[in-house]
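Record format v2
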Amino acid sequence: MRKITMLTDLLEANDVIAMENRKVFDRNRILALNLMSSPGAGKTTVLEKTIDKLGKRFHFAVIEGDVATSNDAKRLAKYKIPVVQITTETFGGACHLDANMVQRAMQKIDLSKVDILFIENIGNLICPAEFDLGEHKKVIVLSLTEGEDKPSKYPVVFRNSDLLLVNKMDLWSYLGINLNLLLRNTKKINPKLPIIKLSAKTEEGFKSWLEWLRKQYQKKSGS
Amino acid sequence: MRKITMLTDLLEANDVIAMENRKVFDRNRILALNLMSSPGAGKTTVLEKTIDKLGKRFHFAVIEGDVATSNDAKRLAKYKIPVVQITTETFGGACHLDANMVQRAMQKIDLSKVDILFIENIGNLICPAEFDLGEHKKVIVLSLTEGEDKPSKYPVVFRNSDLLLVNKMDLWSYLGINLNLLLRNTKKINPKLPIIKLSAKTEEGFKSWLEWLRKQYQKKSGS
């Protein structure tokens, strides 16, 4: 009981800071996206390809979340965009980002020069879904290798998200995964969740994702 | 600060119950293993194949941890062994099992008839590593698809474990994964961690895992 009260307090405090973050994003006409997935589903590769393809059209920035290492921030350094690494080892090894961590990281970025901010969450399908960071949209990256039952087993993240990217489609023919079953399981949890199948490796399906991104930015900026 | 004190209290309370669980296992000459991995790394498939191959030699039981669904328990039902499902939705959606949940589940199993108990943890590479359940050994299942850097990014689970199973080796030729780099990264975090490469699909490498399991059981039971 004590544990549950504490969690409620923490979530409420988080929501207040998340609201502040969102106001800052809005004032700067930034589209902020929270990317969530299991470990190794390909979030960083999706980001690399996205920045590679749209880097001339938009000014990107990335806040990278990890328990340990700044490997992903280093991978993105080549694009010469602002990248801030949060490692939660210094926050007791937290298994998710929270609005306060994001607020601190935001202060290291000149937000007046950013169009789209990606917040790459910790690799975890559970707790990240419960913490509003101030983003406008939540995007799940699911690796096809994880199997058809993940929406049913991790319902909160699928229920709370605005887009599902099914990544590693290039492996489909080797996996024996029933894609229709995956889509049906997703619909049961969140009938309105748009789904884009892609491969960050072969770039199959990438056009639809970039189109979705452009549309979200237009809605946000009114441009 | 308040959060950290609370966490310490919770972990200490957990350890007391874990110790009780371990005593019960020892009294019943049970080898208890805690299986941890990311979502969809193949823990349940490893269990299916293991029970299939050693079901005549040992009496198995399984405690299944999930946030939602009893899909995995249903998959194991065909082996006619005791399987108890814990769904943490009823514990505030906890992202890991704790010793108390396991203690309650144990009470539903006739432990006098069990040789090896598998506790299949929630799919999450972070928090499960911090909670002792009373098991004798911790086993990580890593899907090869997750990439070479997971030991560096999720150091606690690799540091605290007794065996690493690198699963889905059948996909190796399609993935372009540098296996030596994965092994080097693992050694940096935990130089003594034994590593077995296998495929629960093709059964490649399975012999070594079954051999490891038999040895652990012999050590435990003295038989």
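The first strand of chain B starts at residue 31 and ends at 37.
The radius of gyration of chain B is 17 Å.
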